[in-house]
Amino acid sequence: MRVRRRMTSSTDVASRSRAKRGGSAPPRLREAFVLDAAVHAFCRAGPEGSSVEELARMSGVNKRYIYEMYPDKESVFAAVVEREVSRLRDHLLSALVDSAGMPPGEVVRGQLDAVREYAVLHPERIRLIRVATHSRSSRVTDALEAAKGSLVRAYLDLWRRCYPDHDLSTPPLTEFFGALVWGIAGALVDLVLEHETDDGAELVDAFAGFILGGMQEIARRRSAATTS
Asked: Residues 7-16: contacts with CB within 8 Å, 24+ apart?
């Protein structure tokens, strides 16, 4: 599946329109304007290189109102990371539901293709999440871990359907499997963003094969340990 990249910029027409009406919008809409501006600012320069003044200018929302919503810039960063991580998690879980009943290989490929598709359609959102992985904020870390945990639980359900005789729910194996899928998804995202390509079918196939190989090797070793 080829997805056409949407070019995004903090100076595009949508951003200018938001800036014009941000100050008079309802509270929930103003908050959305601020978080949209935060995606642009933080994915480019991180929280350290951005300012509340910049967010106010980009969103059209008065700086004083931003401080009424958030006590500091770090709180804005945490809030926008929570929103974007939830969006990505929901996108992947939706793809997992759509692939119910398919063979394991197709399910894994579907998940990785959903990651690739999201990175192509929403590069700034993905870059923000990548920035967040280096954050020391406990709130940001908790948001990332919560999303990872919900995805790992969904993948464990997939494992149980594929290998009902080999329990993967013990902590070391769960952590390994979660790290495997999470790490490969991150590597796929990095390659898509670095090369700015919307043709990642070969990458998806290669990474899916790696994950499936890992699943099969775990099952083989557990089977050998059980029979020995």
From this structure: 8/40, 8/123, 8/124, 9/40, 10/37, 10/40, 10/41, 10/44, 10/58, 15/40, 15/58
Place of tokens 């800036």: 19
Whole-model pTM? 0.76
Q: Is residue 21 part of a domain?
A: yes
Q: What is the pLDDT of residues 5-32, one digit of tens each?
A: 444 444 443 444 444 445 567 888 999 9
Q: Can you give the CATH number for the domain in which 66 is found? A: 1.10.10.60
3-state secondary structure of 91: helix
**Residue 2 counted as domain residue:** no
Q: Which helix (H) or strand (E) holds 120?
A: helix 104-121
